[in-house]
Amino acid sequence: MAEPGTEPNPKSGVIGRGTYSESLRIGAILRKETVGGILLVITAAAAIIWANSPASDSYFALRDFTFGYEPWHLELSLGAWAADGLLAVFFFLVGLELKREFIAGDLRNPRTAVVPVAAAVGGVAVPALVYVGINIFSPDTLRGWAIPTATDIAFAVAVLAIVGSHLPSALRIFLLTLAVVDDLIAITIIAVFYSDDIQVTPLLLALIPLALYTLLAQKYREFFHLKPAAAWFILLPIGFVVWALVHAGGVHATVAGVLLGFAVPVLHRKATAGPDAGPGLAELFEHRIRPLSAGFAVPVFAFFSAGVTVGGWSGFVSAVTDPVALGIILGLVVGKPIGIVGTTWLLTKLTKVNLDPALRWVDLIGVALLAGIGFTVSLLIADLSFTPDGSTNDHAKVGILTASILAALIASVILRARNKQYRMIEADEGVDADGDGIPDVYQERSNPADETVTAPEPDDAGTRADNEGPRSGS
């Protein structure tokens, strides 16, 4: 029998609380991302101020300063190192999180996964269609169709921290899962549509160190009798070789980050599982790398990417009335909520399952607007879509910044107005009348025939063997 809190909560509608362990894990992740999100906002603001100050030339000189080893195609500007190198760290975490969700998380059950996955697809498709509709007669700008499809979870949780929203666990889990699936779609779009001048030889060569990395990650204990901490020093150099070869092959190097994340095992293998097995490799990597990603990699990328010369009020008006910026703004602020909420509403009609009784559709609209903060990945796609020094790229970035601020402000108003209700839900979720350490809302059972079945959840990190015996590694 599964441990308390690892079984599904009662049937609570199309968006539910999930398991208690998942709620704890998501809460811990969002707390870490809050600090990174605030740093992200600060560094982006600093870049914009510097780029529009009398010392703007020094900002662009710093961004465009190049260094590296040219024979390996690694003589890059600081801005390119941030986009191709530091964001690979971010996407490595995306790979870890995606694998964890679909191997050991609540999303291992298709019935649980269908809502956030479908909502993420809707939240990508509708903004893209909005952008295309506005730029349909401009072939040169259509290449930016994917810019308004992204969601920036760090920026979103920073907004939550600033407005003091007591967002219920069901909405927090929905938001993070939505962002993770969104990232998967974004990296797929980048790999398929924004890879130019493909070089087959480096890509084929990359398969060799990737296979070695995967083998060592899966069986590091058997091969070297190493603790997870020691495995880091062996896997990191191999991972760098994979990244360099993928970069030389013409595929955006952040794709290498996702592939390397997928290669790390989430669960202990049978040979190493057991009550004294300790944390797994994925848990250790996430614990060590998330602060690096949220506190350094993403803010530094934002600093070098967000700096755009606006040109005063007239320049701002000219930028936001450009079809590129209009497509991005309307795509993120209008298209995202319509895609996410509309898809979720459609699922309620098709499955005849209602929204959680404690929530209202306005709550989902607020979360969908948070998802309209596309900042980090949107900036990356803008740089891939248009010439970095061109006016179209500048207008795209003004559109991204404007849309992110508008989405954050509107979401803040909606969620702030609902804080009283959220506090009541938060209080209910904290009641533990039987004193067993698991809130009662995660244990109350409805008619078994009506329950949504979810596979048993691992512990809070999702990497240890459960109490029913060892499991195979993945």
List keywords for this structure.
474 residues; mainly alpha; 17 helices
Series of H and E elements = HHEEHHHHHHHHHHHHHHH
Number of domains: 1
Indicate the proportion of strand residues.
under 5%
Secondary structure: helix percent: 55-70%
Largest sheet: 2 strands, antiparallel
The tally of helices reads 17
CATH architecture: Up-down Bundle
User: Total strand count, please?
Assistant: 2
Query: Going across the major beta sheet, what is the strand order?
Result: 1-2
CATH class call: Mainly Alpha
Identify the overall geometry: globular
Oligomeric grouping of the chains: single chain
Based on CA atoms alone, the radius of gyration comes out at 22 Å
What this model shows, in words?
There is one protein chain. 65% of the residues lie in helices and 1% in strands. The protein is mainly α and 474 residues long. It has one domain (20-195, 252-445): Up-down Bundle (Na+/H+ antiporter like fold), CATH 1.20.1530. A two-stranded antiparallel ribbon has the order 1-2. α4 (110-135) crosses α6 (169-193) and α11 packs across α15 (375-385). The radius of gyration is 22 Å and the shape is globular. Residues 1-12 and 445-473 have low confidence and may be disordered.
